Amino acid sequence: MSLITSLRILLVEDNDVFRQALELLLGLEEGLEVVGAVTDGNAVLAACAALDPEVVVMDFRLPGMDGVEATTALRSVRPEIAVVCLTASASPRELDALVAAGAVSCLRKDQPLDEIVGAIRRAGAPVA
User: Fold this and answer.
1) Which of 91, 34, 51 lies closest to 67, judged by CA?
2) How far is it, in rounded angstroms, from Cα 111 to Cα 4?
3) CATH fold of 7-124, please?
4) What is the mean pLDDT of the chain?
5) 41: how many CB neighbours lie within 10 A of its CB?
6) Please, are residues 59 and 41 in contact by the beta-carbon 8 Å criterion?
7) Within 13 Å, how many C-alpha atoms sit on residue 5's CB side?
8) Which residues are within 8 A (CB) of 1 and not within 5 positions of it... i.e. 6 or more apart?
9) Would you place residue 3 in the very low, low, confident or very high pLDDT band (cuts 50, 70, 90)?
10) Which of 77, 82, 79, 76 lies closest to 12 in space, CA to CA?
11) Stretch 56-70: mean pLDDT, rounded?
């Protein structure tokens, strides 16, 4: 008998309404667990150390460090944590910078929830 574990997710989002809605919606998905949320890019490393997520859902525009800086910092000390960027708007140059920083996927906040959930699941899937 195998243990079913949930994919541990940290949300990094400064928009309170969007963060709370996303936390609620992801919490309803089987196999996903939002273990915490922070509102500032500067808080990402400490939150990851305390909460040990497998996937970080990162906004692009954040107070403190922006999404690129926070992704770069996180991937340099915790490369095993996957980063999925979720942003309202980012230019192609900004999206390229996120991927270069180590984000495995970049999505818009207005994409369907199943696409966002799918990207999170793929990001947290074990490498075969």
Assistant:
1) 91
2) 28
3) Rossmann fold (3.40.50)
4) 90
5) 25
6) no
7) 11
8) none
9) low
10) 82
11) 91
DSSP E strands, the chain? 7-12, 32-38, 55-58, 82-87, 105-108
> What confidence category does residue 127 fall into, taking pLDDT thresholds of 50, 70 and 90?
low
> Rounded to the nearest 5 degrees, what angle is found at the Cα of 66, between the Cα atoms of 38 and 35?
20
The span from the CA of 32 to the CA of 67, in Å, is 22
Residue 115: what residue type? E
Identity of residue 63: P
Sequence-distant (6+) residues with CB within 8 A of 77 are 45
| Structure-derived torsion over alpha carbons of residues 32, 70, 102, 79, reported in degrees to the nearest 10 | -70
pTM comes to 0.92
pLDDT digits (tens, 9 = 90+) for 85-119: 998 877 888 888 889 999 999 998 899 999 999 99
Domain layout of the chain by residue ranges: 7-124
